[in-house]
Amino acid sequence: MKKITLLCISLLLVACKSNSIYYWDSYPQTSYAYKHEPSDETFQKHFDTLTEIINNAESKNKKIPPGIYIELAMMYSSIDDLDKAKEMLNKEKELFPESAKFIQVVNNRLIGAQL
Amino acid sequence: MKIFFSISFIVLLLSGCATQERLTKGEAYPDMYKNKPISILVVPAINQSTAADAAQLYSTTIAEPLAEAGYYVMSVPATDAIFQSEGIVDGAQLDAFSPTKAHEIFGADAILFVKINRWETNYFVTGGNVTVGAAFRLVSAHSGAELWRYNDAVIINTSGGSGNLIADIISTAISTALTDYVPIARQVNFQVMGSIPAGAYHSQNNLDKDQKVVIIDKTNF
Questions:
Q1: What's the whole-model pTM score?
Q2: Phi (first) and psi of residue B75, to 5 degrees
Q3: To probe the interface with B, which of A69, A98, A111 has the most B CB atoms within 10 Å?
Q4: What residues of chain A have any CB closer than 8 angstroms to a CB in chain B?
Q5: Is the N or the C terminus of chain B less surrounded, counting Cβ atoms within 10 Å?
């Protein structure tokens, strides 16, 4: 009885989940781990999540969420790969034109690439 | 039969809210439909709860429900880093932050503020829950007007629930000790964002005005 109730609720939740616009993979987990305890390991795991989202969103019939490219730009910038950082910022702007001003601020304040 | 009971159980759960005031989203948040914000700047949380981690849990789990509600969420880690470079790490330092500045500086249409007042892990003999109390406010960055708010406690059940009393007690003890708060914070944010009118990237944008919503606004938890 209890199990069936739980099953119904899970089914409802699963049904909602499949309607999502974006592909998030394990974003909440790796994002929290990296924020909570920044280390090479948590950096790599979050970097892998962001890369997975970008590479596979399309095959999952989902879109790439807002901000994913910006986070990658910050990560590339932190390992001194400004070319990649610039590429990521431009991709975000392509996907979400309303981000143009924000991207300028992020670049000026945090990254410093020649956009 | 069993399924019937299960469904009635869910319906009962849902109708438990029916005694509270019910408005449509259009009636409850008229300014949201007039302003039609596209981009939202999420600023650091004010944490007044006893959980030191609450602000981090919030900032890493808010983008998903807010983006899924149809809004362009300005990268939260980038926003946090910019504020941090100005010496702002807690929302309590944002008292003097003017909403229209957020438009000038970041190009944001709206700003999401949150005050977390309560974060409690409760556990009983056969179950447990996490109760999170928070006051959310979405404010227009063009006019400073309040567009949407949510102010209540959200309770997330963390029970094991195998039906076997001894096993439940053990699993409750274990899961309370090792509770992973990320999915809980995520559920809280999804539940709260259920009442926000759908944004530009959502198929229900401008079509959910007649959807009923429970208006909860308790100043004390």
A1: 0.84
A2: -40, 120
A3: A98
A4: 1-9, 12, 20-22, 24, 27-29, 31-32, 35-36, 65-67, 70-71, 74, 96, 98-102, 105-106, 109-110
A5: N
